[in-house]
Structure formats: C-alpha cells, structure tokens
Amino acid sequence: MNEYALRASDLFKTCFRKSPETVLFAPGRVNLIGEHVDYNGGRVMPCSLSLGTYAAAARRNDGVIRLVSVDMGGAAVETTSEELASLPCVPLSFARFGWAEYPLGVAAKLIENGFCIGGFEMAVCGSLPRGSGLSSSASLEVLTCAVLKELFFIRLTGEQAALISLAAERDCAGVNCGVMDQFICAKGRKDHAMLLDTHTLSNEYLPFDLKDAELLIMNTNKPRRLAGSKYNERRAECEEALRLINAAGLDKKHLCDITEEGLAFIEGALPETLRRRARHAVTENIRTLKAAEALKTGDIVTLGKLMNASHDSLKNDYEVTGKELDSIVYAARDQEGVLGARMTGAGFGGCAIAIVKKDAARSVIESVTARYKAETGLTCSIYTAKTGEAPFGKE
Ligand code: GLA
Questions:
Q1: What average pLDDT does this structure show over 154-164?
Q2: For 60, how many CA atoms within 13 A lie in the half-sphere containing its CB?
Q3: pLDDT value at position 87?
Q4: CA gap 33, 287 in Å, rounded
Q5: Among 180, 257, 336, 374, which residue carries the largest CB count within 10 Å?
C-alpha cells in the first residue's frame, strides 16, 4: 500500500474502529489536447494519472452512511441511504454536505437509477494537489462508484460509472461540465492516452510513448477563481453560436460537427466574439484528431506543435488562459528541448503541461520556475507526469 492508501486506511480505523473491507484508487487526469470541446460534441485526448484519490471503505447493515477525509479534517459527514433516496438531486440539498457532496451525490444518483445502495463508511485521502485542475472531483466521484460497486455487488460498467458521476457533478454539485473528466478517471489505462469522442463516447486507447521526451505538469499554483462562472459563460456562448449557425442555414447538432470547410460559414454567420469561440471549438477538434495521429505514428514534434496551437487558440479565441498560465506556457516554450506546451483543463489558473526532451527536463524546470516567479511573483510546482490505472480501465 502506498502512503496515501495507508493514510485513508488508518483514518478509517481510527474513526470507525474496525478494518476496511476494501481500499481502492481512482486517478486524476491531464488532458493532452481537445480543450473545451467535450460540451461541443468534440474529441478529447486525456491521460489518467498515477496521482488521484484513495478510499478505504466497509458496508454497514443499518443504512447509516459516514464519510471522512484526510484532506478535509477528521470530522465525519453523516446521512442515511434512506435520506439520500428522498433528497431531490439539486445543489440546494447537497451543499450542506460540503466536500462530501461529490460521493453522496454519486450514491444518490446510483439510488435514483435503481441500484440498491445501503449504509457504508468511507475514509478518503487524495494525492492530487487541490484546486489544480487535475480533476480531483471526478476522481472522487468515480472512486465512489468503484467502492459502491464492490461493497454492494452492483453491476456497473465504466461507462455507467462515468455517466453517474457526471450526473452527480451536474445535478448535485451544480457544475455543468462535459463528460471528459469522469470518463477518463473511470476508464483510463496506465501508459495510455485515450482518444474519446464525447458525442458517441466511442474511444480508443493510444500507447502513451513520447520517445526521448516526457510530459511535465506545471502547476501555476494560482487557484482557478473564475473557472466556474466563466466556464458556464463559455458554454452559453457556444450554445448561442450553434443556434445562430443553424438559424443561418446549417443543420448541426454540435459545434464540433462543423468541418474545416465549414469555418468560412462561421465567419459570416456570427458576431465577433461568438465567431472566435466557435472557431476555437472547430479548430481544436480538428487539432485533436491530428494529435492522435501524431501520437500513433510517434511524431512527437507535430504533437508538440499542435499543443502550442491549442494553447494559442485557448488564449486568443476562447480567452480562458490568463496571465499565469500564459507566463508558464511561454516560459516553457522558450526553453531548449521543449517540443510544446499548453494549459490543461478548464483554465483561468491550475495546470499547464509541456512535452520536454528527457535530457533537458531538469534545466527546463529550473529556468521556467525562475522566469515564472519573476513574471508573476508566484512559485510554481513542476514534475513529471506519470500515467495511472483507472478502476474500470481493464473491463
Ligand atoms: C473542465 C471540465 C471538462 C472540460 C474541461 C475543458 O475540466 O470538467 O468537462 O470541459 O474543463 O476542456
């Protein structure tokens, strides 16, 4: 057992005065490319990480549910399966559970979908830096699915676990996100990236082999303060752009159904801001397909260039980067041995990623850290990304 699994297990024993029946893990994620397209029916290419969330858990026979978290202090959040079954799945009913709105939202959604969930106790411990945009909430949601599947012998596929987790995030926690994070946290595989079509959910595992390079995670350590409100604003802008495009004569279900040839049509049909938002969605989807091809053929130079173009589009057309992400990304790009760098996740802070030649990694980390500090006054954390196995990755 690693350090975090042990801490979850120890907390379980201290709080619940018995041993857990099971200790499970679900990963966080980075998205290599395909940003802000998962709610536009586009393709994304994330990787599951070795960093994530651990849970120690056991069943109870009296319907009582008790949850504790190493990261959120020792106090247990308590409810019952009966109460969860009667709660409407809306943020108002779940807000009082604090951090536990995610696991309890998942339990409630499972119950709502006809799964038989009784009482249980669970202690969790995360190895993901909090608020860094590496999907700690999706990791916790999917982990809860995996735990409840095991404790209550329910038949649940990875895809169902992802969709239940997404429903919990949207309805109970009130975050109107796309399906990418929950899907990769449920079904990612070690040493692989996944090319996921967020419209059909068809997906392909791609060996994650960067040859003589490696992937760095560069945490700006800037909290993603605007992420929630601006995220919803961007979603609304995309919906409005789609409405106008269809009103002007196209018949598309999603923005990402528009091809390269359709870009000229967008230019004519939309006002300035919406034109840029739609252009990002369409071009990012196309870049993701090209990036998947580059990864498959081992063309890491092209993959890096596509990552650069992705960041520039997120900065100029989609406007979700901000001073800190731009500073760290451009500092990285200026270093010898860096093949590409971009923000990852929702934006407005959080993490960026860079593909870096292995023999240059150390000096890149030093130079980027110094320049980022000089430009922003903040201290970043940079480390090598390691992929990890998701609980439904091998089904
Ligand atoms: C957040 C959301 C995802 C996705 C990304 C942006 O991580 O949870 O669904 O939209 O932002 O690509």
A1: 98
A2: 18
A3: 96
A4: 8
A5: 180
Q: What residues are in contact with ligand 1 under a 6 Å CB criterion?
A: 31, 35-36, 38-39, 177-178, 180-181, 345-346
Distance CA 172, CA 93 (A): 8
CB 388 within 8 A of CB 188: yes
Which atom of ligand 1 sits closest to the CA of residue 36?
12
Q: Half-sphere exposure of residue 339, counting CA atoms within 13 Å on the CB side?
A: 20
CA of 99 to the centre of ligand 1 (A): 19
Q: Which two tokens stand for residue 303?
A: 């993959």
| Catalytic pick among 38, 181, 317, 326 | 181
Active-site residue flag, 317: no
* 169 residue type, one letter: E
Domains of the chain: 3-207 (3.30.230.10), 213-384 (3.30.70.890)
CA of 11 to the centre of ligand 1 (A): 31
What is d(CA 317, CA 97) in angstroms, rounded to the nearest whole number? Answer: 38
Lookup: tokens for 74: 């020792």
